[in-house]
Design a protein that fits this description.
This protein is mostly beta strands. The chain contains no helices and 11 strands. Strands 2, 4, 5, 6, 9, 10 and 11 form a 7-stranded mixed β-sheet that branches. It is elongated.
């Protein structure tokens, strides 16, 4: 099986910083693209940031200049550095990974359990 284990969520003041981590573990051949999504109360889940295995990145317009996504391929881990957070950033953040289980098989999407980020004034 494949697991995505997230950490780093919690309560942070507006203007502060937080760093989320997500590590892929289990039986698989390769972790391809990884990303972070979030879902606020009453809102649809949206892409926050994504990164390919070659470190190409893209961000939602709302977080550009404030958030940074990165990865450690040796650890199969993706990070989200959140700076200058706003109340609008309050949401459950979900890790996502595109993973190939074996060389002969297609890739599949996997999701973490979600971690709550709450921004207070």
């Amino acid at each position: 099986q494949v697991q995505l284990v997230e950490s780093g969520g919690g309560l942070v003041q507006a203007g502060g910083s937080l760093r989320l981590s997500c590590a892929a573990s289990g039986s698989f051949f390769r972790v391809n693209a990884m990303g972070w999504y979030r879902q606020a109360p009453g809102k649809q889940r949206e892409l926050v940031a994504a990164i390919t295995s070659g470190a190409s990145t893209n961000y939602a317009d709302s977080v550009k200049g404030r958030f940074t996504i990165s990865r450690d391929n040796a650890k199969n881990t993706v990070y989200l550095q959140m700076n200058s957070v706003k109340s609008e950033d309050t949401a459950v953040y979900y890790c996502n990974a595109d993973i190939r289980r074996t060389l002969a098989q297609l890739t599949s999407q996997y999701w973490g359990q979600g971690t709550q980020v709450t921004v207070s004034a």
